Each structure stands twice: as C-alpha cells, then as structure tokens.
Fold this sequence. Notes:
39% of the residues lie in helices and 20% in strands.
Amino acid sequence: xxxxxxxxxxxxxxxxxxxxxxxxxxxxxRAESFWDRFRGVLRSWDLIQQSGTAVRVQLSAELRVxxxxxxxxxxxxxxxxxxxSLTQLEVFADAEVALAQGRIEHDALLRxxxxxxxxxxxxxxxxxxxxxxxxxxxxxxxxxxxxAHALGHALSYHVNVERFxxxxxxxxxxxxxALRVADTPGVGxxxxxxxxxxxxxxxxxxxxxxxxxxxxxxxxxxWLQRTLEQRFQNAYGVFIQPxxxxxxxxxxxxxxxxxxxxxxxxxxxxxxxxxxxxxDERIEVxxxxxxxxxxxxxxxxxVVETTPASxxxxxxxxxxxxxxxxxxxxxxxHSDSQRINSxxxxxxxxxxxxxxxxxxxxGAEWDALIEDRLRRSAVLLLFVSRRAVESKFVRREAKFAxxxxxxxxxxxxxxxxxxxxxxxxxxxxxxxxxxxGGVAEVARAVEFVQLPTK
Length: 454
C-alpha cells in the first residue's frame, strides 16, 4: 500500500488512492447492500480529523472510478484503517478494490485530461447584489457519460469535498445579499428563492465541494461546454449566460493533491454559497451510482467465488485456534482445501496456532468476523493458485492484511499462476514459497516473522 506525500504551507499530508470496480451484475438486494456499505465507508472517512475526500470518474475505453483520501501525516494509522475499510466492498458480487501499491500506480490514478474546466461560475452581480448558483455536474453525470460514449469522447469528472467551517460573517453576508436580491427590480421569484435557500443552507453546511470536468480534444471541449451551458440554462433560465471555460493544463494543485481550492486560497461568499453542502449531501456527492448501461462499460473479470455462504467439507483439516495468543490467519480458495490439508496439519502438529474459515460459527456475520480475525492475527499465510487469484475473498483478505501492515507469507500451489487483480505488485513485497518445500520451509518462513509456537 502506498501513500503519496506532499506539503501545503509547510504542513505534511498523506494521500491514499484506490480504484474501485463497481458491481455490474448483482441481485437487487446485493446492489443495495454494496451502496449502503460504500456510504458507510465514506461516513467513517469523515471522522478522520482534517481529512478531505475526492472521487474521480473516467470514461474512455472503459468506466473507471477512483477514490482519494487525504489527511495530515500524523493520521497515517487512520489512513491505513480507511484503506482496510475499502476492502469491505469486495464481498459484493464482482466489486473490486485496488489500492495503489506504488508511485507509478498512484500517479496513474491521478492522470487527468489536458483540457479542464472548474465548474464554478464567476460572480454574476447586479447593481446591488450578487447571485450564486448550486449547479452540480454530478446530477447530470449519467447523461453526460452516455452521450460522450455515443460521440466517442473520453470524459473525466472529479469532485473534491473538504470539511469547512462557515463563519458567522459569511452567513450574515449571504443573508443580507438575499434581501438585496429580493429588492432588486426585475429579478424573478425563483432566483430570489434560490438565494434565500443557499443563504439558509450555510447554517447547516459543514463541507464545501468543487467539481472539475476534463476532455482530450477541442471537439470534445466544444460539445461539453455547449451541453453544460444548456443544462445550466434549463435549471436557472435562458437569460443567464454561464461561462464554462476550458483551459489546457490548469488546476494542477487541486487535481493532484485532491484538495479543495479553500486549502490554497480564500473564496468569496458567493462561491461559499454555491459550494457549501451538509454532511448528508457530502455522501450524496461522493457516492455516485451509475445507471445500468454505464455499468456495462466496466471491464468484466471472471469471478469464481461469489459468496461464502456454502463452505466445503473441511472435516479432515486441523482444528482452528480460538484463543488470544498470536496465530496464523490462513487465506485460501475453498477449491484448494484438500491440497493444503497435509501442510496445515503439519504446521498444527509442530505447534503453530492456525485460524481459517472453518472457524466461523453458525449465524456469524462472515465479513465482520474475517476482519476481526485478520486484525488479531500475527501473520497471513496465503496459498496462491489460479483459483485463489480469481477468488474475491482471497484477494480481499490479502489486501486487508497489507493495509494493516501484517506480514504475508505466500505459498505457490501450482506453476504458471498469473498474479492479476492487483496481487502482482502487492505480493512482490513479501516472501513467496513453493508448496514443494513442504512443512519445514513454511514453518521457517513463519518463524522468521517471529510468530512463536505453543
């Protein structure tokens, strides 16, 4: 797992990046559970002090979604826990999380098209008052992506969300401006109501958000600018002429650090009104749920194990440790249970304490118990095979252990296994053994990470 590091005004920050494969073929219940869990993860991230969150959606040959979390360097442990919480999503259908394992992977997540637009309007001022607009690209994102796909345009969308305290002076300024708008001759009722609503929202708001869109070609710029202007005027009236300006290579600081502009400079009251959101609105902004057509653009991978509800017969395997002493967490594909039986029995005979999913009591919440055992374990013993690489649950256990900085000992069960789905870069950091080495070699590797026997 990799954290990018940078400074803002002498303060060091860490940035976590991850790509998320959204579930493409779940049942209705499982789909709802995924999004409920995703929103729960986002809520937990907001508990990290001084943190900021960003989501990036990119459509070219496929649809990709990336998440970023930024926090002070002193919150490194909280960031590790946040990375672990993402692995909860992998129990749902074909959802998958890939945490960046190095700078190259992380930088790839941060790439953004060269023509960019920050969709915040300049001040629209009358003789006595200014006007703010809460236009959100997110509300139109499905239609924009579908149209971009039909026209052959690559399109990227990015949103930064930052906790922000709305000062009382700003609230008073917005309230006074709403009164001035109401007294301005010729201003229609809907525009007056909008300024009142935005001013009142500042009393409840706890965050600010800003959106960016990016494309690669001048033709795509022309299409997207025209489309955004039309959607804005549909919402606020044709008499208002917005200026969604695309510039080349701009906004690098906000897009690279995934921080809101308020981290770099002050913003005016009209922009605070336009960008202020509540904690509940933060979840809505960050948890974009695409339509089924767009989910079909996600590259589909094979998924061998889709549910842990029907474990195999493990009666011949050794007993599972249930105490509080250091133990080995065993991660494997159920289809490999007979291949690892003798090796686990040998380790148990020597005196190593083992835990694997034979130890899940009836009625237990599967994913919660797995996470608890991984947190309490001393080392992860990972059995690698083609079936294991394709097992969502094996991958999730390996990624979660890595996020907890648990040592990982891998045992290759067969030759020619391609370490795909993010396991290649992850496992090259750890020791890889071959099953032909037998119990003695595995025992030495486990002993090397200083796990004592009984």
